[in-house]
Amino acid sequence: MILSLSKDTIKISQEQDVVFLKNRVKETAVKIKMGLVNQTRIITAASELVRNMMRYANGGNCVIEVVSSGRVNGVRLTFTDKGPGIPDIAAAMRDGFSTGRSLGLGLPGTKRLVNEFDIKSKVGEGTTVTIVKWANG
Amino acid sequence: MSFNTSQLLQKKKKYILELWMKNQLADEGLREDLISNEELRSQSEELINSLVGNLSSENVADINSDEWNPVIEILGGIAITRARQGFSPRETGSFVFSLKDALIQVLQEENKNDAKVLFAESLKISRIMDNLSIVTFETFIKGREEVILRQTDEIAEISTPVIRVWDGILALPIIGTLDSARTQIVMENLLQEIVETGSSIAILDISGVPAVDSLVAQHLIKTVSATRLMGAECIISGIRPEIAQTVVHLGIDLSNIITKSTLASALAYAFKAMKLEVRKTSTVLKSNF
Asked: Domain B5-153 belongs to what architecture?
């Protein structure tokens, strides 16, 4: 059972919002006393996802939540966009696969950086990615 | 219209200006440090002339009519200069609002006996002045945004210095997030400097980069490849423990690049590559006296 303790929505529409979002994620991570390595991991994961959102969907929304499951706290980020959607999620989750001439490590790399990773996408409707990083996970 | 406001205002132009100036000078927000009284008067006079000159009983209700363009232009010019001079929004806004007070006062004095006309005319003047205030604010904010944009450019410019640490060794400390635009500037500056100084080793220090994601890594790899094409070697230094772990988890392969944890070790490597040696002197140097 995961409880949401606080919720904060940030709209992403331009390059400057990326830095702002990263700072907010960091603040949230520091607030729940996350270690430096995990902080860097969740910030990097957020950075990957928000860049994808900017690049393929021209922006969207990000919800930052402090979540609690029993005794541990964590940060949950939900990225929602109304972009073109991902036709083949299995391929997108493979290392080195990219439709946009990048390294192709964004989605699979993000999955390795966080504790929980969930992606839902419908072609033509948009994509939602949810990640959770526990403070000591 | 039973009573012609535009003619009245035309006639009373001088008087309105005096009233307005009185209002402005009495206002607490008067910034004598930023604008002299003479300048303020000439700005006010220009605006009143244009406003009264263009006001007619037809266009009084319609701010979008073309006849308002000159007024909006003058007002826009004033708002932009004020934004640059550092006026606060309140001070800029009160410039227009105090004119409204003056206009309404004149209307009041003229229509003492006819409350109905006074109400109708005041409403019209209010509406037009409110619209002009909105224009002022819009332009004011635009002026401020320009200031911010210019500063952003400046930050991008100054935040990518190329330092000559030794003959043939360049260092480039990167601070902040490395996005595509920054990478472009970094790469240009670095490659240019390599040509100019004939350096054979460049050290990219990323101690000041908060997080390395796959895009930043890709930019770094590109910069290194470009440097190699120029015949120089590129070392990436300042990789902190948490960054190292994140990069590994992301699955980014930086094994083709020489990486060091500190700028000092990168410099040591560079010295070694150039067959230079840094030694502690064994004996105290005798002075040349």
From this structure: Orthogonal Bundle (1.10)
